[in-house]
Structures are given as C-alpha cells and as structure tokens.
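=== RUN LOG ===
request id: a7f3
mode: sequence -> structure
chains: 1
length: 127
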Amino acid sequence: MRKSVENLATSKTTGGRRSPLRIRRKYETDRYPNEAINGAQVTVTRRVRGNNNKVALKSIDFVNLAKGDSKVIKTKIIKVLDNATNNDYRRRGIISKGAILETQEGKCKVVSKPGQTGIANAVLLKE
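=== RESULT ===
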C-alpha cells in the first residue's frame, strides 16, 4: 500500500498523461490503520518519522476509567456498544477515540487514541 498524499502524475488538459518530475518520498506514504478490538492485550511498536516510536494496540481487555470524583480505575471491557467514527467499526467492534464501551462500571467513552498511543483511557458517561 504505497499511496501518496498528493497526485504526482496528473492529466493534461488534452487528456494526455503527465509524467511526474519526482518520485514519492517515504514520508508521503500511508500505512494501514491499527484497529484495536476487545481481547487479550497485544501491542505492536512502529518506527515513525524522526526516529520515534509509536506503540499501537491490536487488542485490549481493560480500560483506564476516569470517574467523576477524580479517581481512575482499571476496569474490564465487556463489549463495544457504539462507534460514531465509522459504521463498519461499529459492526466489527473496533475501539477508537469516541467509541462507547460497556464496562463493569457502566457505559464509558474512549478519549485516547488506542491505535497510536498504546493505551485506552475513558470517561464514565452519566446515565
């Protein structure tokens, strides 16, 4: 999957193809997204631009839940109820930012990016 941010070879007004003046740079290429699901915790580490690392979740079974009284507890995920990011994510049970989860403490909303930070943080929703 080597797609670019910009189209380097556009067509001319006559319909002919234009050859690009340069090739795609490595930093312009894209990656497949890391989509976390409910299950035993599995993480992957990727090298990113600037010699940095990103730890991504492939699956997770616990979430750091912030309750209203400034307490954070680790609670088990029962299932993914809703994901407004994508209808396909809702059907497949993908955990991303903004997903609504059913936990042992009640419904919560994910506020971190599990596919980029390697951790799942959530806030408790008021019933």
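=== NOTES ===
The chain has a mean pLDDT of 88.
The CA atoms of residues 22 and 39 lie 44 Å apart.
=== END ===
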